[in-house]
Amino acid sequence: MPGTDRSQMALPRFSGIPTFMRVPYCTDINELDIVLAGVPFDGGVTARPGARFGPREIRNMSSMTRAIHHVTRFNPFDVCRVGDMGDVPFTDLYHLERSHEDIRRFFEPVFAAGKIALSAGGDHSITYPIFQAMAPKRPVGMVHIDAHTDTWDSFKGSKFTHGAPFRRAVEAGLLDPRRTIQIGIRGAQNSDEGWRYSLESGMRVVFIEEFEARGVGAIIDEARKVVGDGPTYLSLDVDGLDPVYTPGTGTPEIGGLTTRETLALLRGLDGLNWVGGDVVEVSPPYDPSGNTALVAATLMYEILCLLARRFE
């Protein structure tokens, strides 16, 4: 199998048109095995906006990405064709549900062609229309790293905010709650309905206190046990990390994962039956340093390595 055209990676990192990890810009799905795409949308936020700028800054900071993983010596660009398909084009940006339809339409041909998509958000509401586009024959499992369960019902008249995607996905038969693990959950809430829904529906919820008490290794074992060998999606909200590392996000919660813990967690999930993933909630206006986008770009590379393993 041919690998990725890496000619752009040979350029000085400050030159060339910015794409995710400096892969080719490509809109021909047939030329790709793994599609990288941006979803510049934050119309589903319940507090601070700004995640619409996330994909652009993640692209910029991903120019720092190199090809060969320093631990595994794995090069995802050697084993499969990776390309940046650009951003979801929005036709009705100020209408939440119609914007979700735009996201679904963008990703439908990707999944219909049997490709894998790794997306950069955007707020977490984007994951629900990505699930809709995936249209799995049976509900998928999920590893979800986040400070919040995102299983609330409605907020100010909408059931499709960034606090609700996984409740909607379960209701639509797209996500199997019994094969879902949520890691890093924390922070006071005005209602316990999100926590209750996750637990009562059968999701395995790992609050940050349990993560700290048991350690990364035990939680990796737990995650692998929960999702098993079935098709599994990986969704990572950068507020799952402590805001010391990712201050540029709309709903920061202190006491979160470190970058080292997150890297170890992801690497421990190698070999699962991955069908896609996303990194969401990067809001550059809240982080002038750009570090949040750098963390997100690095985690996207780690996730890409997981997804590319199936092509070895």
Describe this structure in words.
The chain has 312 residues and is α/β, with parallel strands linked by helices. The protein has a single domain (7-311), classed as Ureohydrolase domain (Arginase, Chain A), CATH 3.40.800. 32% of the residues lie in helices and 17% in strands. It has 10 helices and 8 strands. The protein has helices at residues 54-61, 76-79, 96-112, 127-134, 165-171, 193-201, 208-214, 216-227, 259-267, 291-308; strands at residues 34-39, 82-87, 116-121, 140-145, 175-185, 204-207, 232-237, 274-280. It has an 8-stranded parallel sheet, with helices on both faces. Helix 1 (54-61) crosses helix 10, helix 4 (127-134) runs parallel beside helix 5 (165-171) and helix 8 crosses helix 9. The longest helix is centred in the C-terminal third of the chain and has 18 residues, at 291-308. The relative contact order is 0.18.
